[in-house]
User: Fold this.
Amino acid sequence: MGFNMLDKSVSEEGVCFGVESTADDYSVGIVTFDGKVLSNVINPFIPETGGIHPREAARHHAEVAGRVISTAFEEARVKPDEISIVAFSQGPGLGPCLRTGATSARALSSYLNIPLVGVNHCVAHIEIGKLTTGAVDPVTLYVSGGNTIVAAFDAGRYRVFGETLDIAAGNCLDVFAREAGFRQSKGMPLGAIVEEQARKGAKLLNLPYSVKGMDLSFSGLLTAITRLLKEGEYLIEDLCFSLEEMVFSMLGEVTERALAHTEKQEILLTGGVAANKRLQGILSSVASDHSSRFCVVPKQYALDNGAMIAWTGILAFRYGLVTPVEKSLVRLRWRLEDVDAPWVRE
Ligand code: AMP
Ligand code: MG
Assistant:
């Protein structure tokens, strides 16, 4: 199975249209059955102020859907009637956002009279990581704006070994960045702004470190760093540096524990926060301490994207997993370990 972003020749076998809309991004990816990404168009919702309101994000998705879909077809040089299946992110995520993507997917699949495949968003982050890095059976650290999960395949399913008990690591960085007055722009997520500031920091401030077994908690850390910010005595660079060091050391510790426990030979880093160089460095040294391979998803597939949904739809479809329209209701809390993943072998 090859991965080549530049090769635009369409596979004989088929092409999948995938739509992602679990949270702030509306994205469409078109992928061939043999794993070539023909297009991957992402349109993020950037709120004027504050965090992501599910209904506002859903309105954004509905507004941009038509444009994103037609750009994805143009870039892929594929016509709608050349699509073999339609995949969509069925959950977990924000209800109103998920429903907009599901509606586009149902409409396209009924119009073209082709199968619909509901995909689990977390599994899709793992599968795109495996496709693009060649990882086969990794311990995965999936860390994004909405999720923080350490998972690995075990006894026929992806299992969650550890996860956040409150907010996601990306959310912790984002809320702090907003409190500090930073604003997200296209191509510059809040976490990337924190990363840029952190690179200039040097002083490690005293902050809570909260790891419970293989689970994590970030809300106390967020409260503490926000308090230090409001005290106004510390440089923003040092605050960002200290926040990153705490969050990423916690992530490194639980990933290392899962690696030792499962005795896997690969670490896969995926999700939006995977773009962070400091986090990559920490996990890469954990991997080398355990003679394991470190794999990180390329940046364009780190954020929520339609290509990962399309690719996972293909994997499921090959094993006969399709989603009839009457069973295509979105699943807001669809857990990783509840997903049937017959295509994975240990
Ligand atoms: P996702 O939820 O997968 O779309 O990822 C979005 C999350 O990734 C947000 O919390 C972003 O702030 C975060 N993010 C993106 N780039 C970086 C980066 N370079 N460093 C840290 N976090 C990042
Ligand atoms: Mg996102």
